Structure to design on (463 residues):
């Protein structure tokens, strides 16, 4: 094990990039950095106690080169008993479905899509990328020029979800030295010598001038990265805690406005960035302008509103809740279930509905029944088969404590729950009488009298 490999090992342990027994998929382009990474991890795999795999994608952008690169990587892997995966995907065809997207951005999305497909197929835990400190410098400068925030500065970090970058501590020159000394095969991508792309322009034109100001530019940018990373980590930790206030169902995030309005503006903006990033195809946050548009509406006590982000992602205030969703706000309806006997249990996304008998409930225990999430009903109204189904706009119920029927949609509107209409269920008996709307209200028909001996309890609980 040479000195460079020892430094990789220290960096991997310092940042907790891999753990014993994990399967690591290495993204290999055939260039010096990715081939160095593959060679290093292969030499360290027994020490780290990991399984290694390699994947290479032909983006369909070059006629010459990709096939030769794939054959070289395949031979390298075959000699070392590393499973190798290769595929060709057409980036230009993908761009036809993504109007206005740059070829670099489209290539990145296609590449990560391929890598995650392979990762899923083989059950890998992490995807290892060959980014180094030169890449970090380019990425940081490019994002600063475009007006990035804290999260943008640390976008290229040692670990980010399932992505790891074990070479991020190293300058490119050290990688060149490593592949030269260890005779690691690689192939150059001739497009790296062109300055038509933004990143190559930075690499070939801008960074050499900055090195005249500070020859230790890479170390300076790394210090800048670490300082921003430390500060952002505190914010990110708080945002993670605040995310627990959001529910999620059918890919939709939702939370009560009242629980969010006490949060400081910087955290609200970061919450928006995080949720939109998680929901987007490219995992990129919305612009500051869009995040501020959300905050301006969010902070006013107005009626219904909607903010559009990208990729048809939206945030809407409906009633007492704010929703983040794609396209149309609609939860999947619950398929109708029949209840022939009790006890009965059924599952909805994230929730569990129970119907069970309870004898001898005294008046002292009534306080535990809120009528929405836990309710009690006289067994005289339990006429089988009961059924649980999605509500419709014609449904009516006599709310507990009232004498007249009321439309369910109006009750939802009164309670600020109109945005949940498509996921609201009703429990009715064989006569079609609605006895309970889980999470909302119980019917007056369920009232339990002093002489009632046998009762039924309805409950809605988080799983």
């Amino acid at each position: 094990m040479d000195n460079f490999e020892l430094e990789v090992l220290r960096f991997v342990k310092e940042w907790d990039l891999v753990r014993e027994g994990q399967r690591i998929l290495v993204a290999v382009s055939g260039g010096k950095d990715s081939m160095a990474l593959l060679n290093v991890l292969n030499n360290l795999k027994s020490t780290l106690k990991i399984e290694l795999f390699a994947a290479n994608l032909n983006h369909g952008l070059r006629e010459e080169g990709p096939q030769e690169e794939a054959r070289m990587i395949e031979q390298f892997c075959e000699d070392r008993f590393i499973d190798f995966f290769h595929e060709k995907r057409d980036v230009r065809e993908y761009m036809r479905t993504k109007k206005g997207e740059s070829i670099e951005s489209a290539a990145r999305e296609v590449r990560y899509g391929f890598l995650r497909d392979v990762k899923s197929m083989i059950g890998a835990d992490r995807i290892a990328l060959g980014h180094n400190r030169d890449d970090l410098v380019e990425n940081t400068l490019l994002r600063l020029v475009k007006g990035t925030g804290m999260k943008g500065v640390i976008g290229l970090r040692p670990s980010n979800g399932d992505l790891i970058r074990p070479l991020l501590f190293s300058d490119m020159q050290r990688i060149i030295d490593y592949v030269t000394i260890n005779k690691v095969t690689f192939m150059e991508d001739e497009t790296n010598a062109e300055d038509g792309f933004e990143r190559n322009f930075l690499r070939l034109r801008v960074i050499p001038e900055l090195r005249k100001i500070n020859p230790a530019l890479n170390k300076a940018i790394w210090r800048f990265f670490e300082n921003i990373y430390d500060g952002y980590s505190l914010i990110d930790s708080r945002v993670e805690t605040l995310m627990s206030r959001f529910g999620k169902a059918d890919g939709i995030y939702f939370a009560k406005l009242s629980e969010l309005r006490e949060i400081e503006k910087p955290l609200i903006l970061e919450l928006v960035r995080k949720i939109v990033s998680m929901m987007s195809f490219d995992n990129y946050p919305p612009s500051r302008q869009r995040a501020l548009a959300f905050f301006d509406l969010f902070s006013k006590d107005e009626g219904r509103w909607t903010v559009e982000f990208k990729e048809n992602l939206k945030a809407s205030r409906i009633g007492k809740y704010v929703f983040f969703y794609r396209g149309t706000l609609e939860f999947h309806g619950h398929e109708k279930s029949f209840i022939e006997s009790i006890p009965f249990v059924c599952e909805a996304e994230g929730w569990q509905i129970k119907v069970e008998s309870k004898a001898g409930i005294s008046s002292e225990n009534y306080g535990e029944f809120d009528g929405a999430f836990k309710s009690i009903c006289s067994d005289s109204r339990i006429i089988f088969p009961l059924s649980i189904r999605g509500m419709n706009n014609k449904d009516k119920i006599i709310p507990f404590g009232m004498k007249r029927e009321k439309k369910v949609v109006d009750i939802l509107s009164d309670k600020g729950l109109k945005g949940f209409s498509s996921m609201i269920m009703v429990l009715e008996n064989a006569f079609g009488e609605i006895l309970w709307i889980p999470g909302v209200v119980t019917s007056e028909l369920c009232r339990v009298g002093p002489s009632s001996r046998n009762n039924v309890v309805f409950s809605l609980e988080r799983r």
